[in-house]
Amino acid sequence: DGGRYELQLKGAGPTPYSRGADGRAVLRSSIREFLCSEAMHHLGVPTTRALSLVTTGDAVVRDMFYDGRPQREPGAIVCRVAPSFIRFGNFELPSARGDLALLRQWVDFTIA
C-alpha cells in the first residue's frame, strides 16, 4: 500500500521498556499473540500484526500461574509489524531530560 511500517522484536532481550524483566518471551504466549493478532486483523480490527515467530532454543523460566512454581518453557521471538509503535512515553523521556534535540527528532519523525 506504499505506507510506512515499523518492526519490533518481542522476546529478543531486555530493552528500556522491559521494566526490569529479562526481555524474553515464551513460545506459549508468543503463539497466542500470533494467532490473536491475525484473528483481530481478519475481523477488521486495526492492530499490530505478527510477521514471524521463531523459537530461540533457550529455556525461559516463568511462573505461568503465579503460584510460586516457576517452570522452564521454550523461548521464542515474535517480530511485530505496525504502522507505528510510537507511544506518549516516547516524548516524555527526552522532555523530562531536557533533550530538545531528541524530542525534535521524535516530533519530526512522527509528523513525517
Note the topology.
Layout lengths: L5 E5 L14 E2 H16 L6 E14 L8 E12 L6 H8 L3 H12 L1
Antiparallel strand pairs: 1-4, 2-4, 3-4
Tell me what you see in this structure.
Helix content is 32%, strand content 29%. The chain has 112 residues and is of the alpha+beta class. The protein has one domain. Strands 1, 2, 3 and 4 form a four-stranded antiparallel β-sheet that branches. Helix 2 runs antiparallel to helix 3. The relative contact order is 0.21. The model has no long low-confidence stretch (mean pLDDT 92).
Helix and strand sequence: EEHEEHH
Structural class, judged by helices and strands?
Answer: alpha+beta
Count the DSSP helices: 3
Number of strands: 4
Cofactor: Mg(2+)
GO molecular function: AMPylase activity; ATP binding; metal ion binding
Family: Belongs to the SELO family.
Keywords: ATP-binding, Magnesium, Metal-binding, Nucleotide-binding, Nucleotidyltransferase, Transferase
Features:
alpha+beta; ATP-binding; 112 residues; four-stranded antiparallel sheet; 3 helices; 4 strands; 32% helix; 29% strand; metal-binding; single chain
In a nutshell, what does this entry contain?
By secondary structure, this protein is α+β, with helices and mostly antiparallel strands. The chain has helices spanning 27-42, 89-96, 100-111, and strands at residues 6-10, 25-26, 49-62, 71-82. The mean pLDDT is 92.
